[in-house]
Input
Amino acid sequence: TPASHRQSRMPDPALGLAKPAHRDGGNRMAKLPPEEIKNRLASLSGWQLADNTIKKQLKFNDFMSAIAFVNRVAVEAEAIDHHPDITINYTRVTMTLSTHSASGITEKDFALAQQIDSLAKA
Ligand code: HBI
Output
């Protein structure tokens, strides 16, 4: 598209409108309000709110399957630089998510929760 067309579409930085007006400046690390957390939990399966975290217990057929799952999650957590607290009880694995730097639950926690659910099926 010709530059002139692009120019007309972009807000004029001089007007200070260069950035979209998000509620929290579009910061994915901003703590989510309780209502938002409740709504997002409803779209997940098996996750629950517990003391300013979201957590889920997953059951595997045997210990090594549980460990293999934990390792899959570890690779993904490292890739996105967002890490769960993990408890392993033989064939049961509990994933507890919160954003430590925000002292609460952020979008990053829900993104990781979705990844964890996908990896549990792998
Ligand atoms: N994982 N859950 C969680 N919360 C964080 O705040 C966090 C993390 N992983 C890495 C990370 N922060 C990085 O920002 C480090 O610099 C602390």
Notes: The helical segments are 3-9, 34-42, 63-80, 107-121. The pocket of 7,8-dihydrobiopterin is lined by residues 81-83, 99-101 (CB under 6 Å).
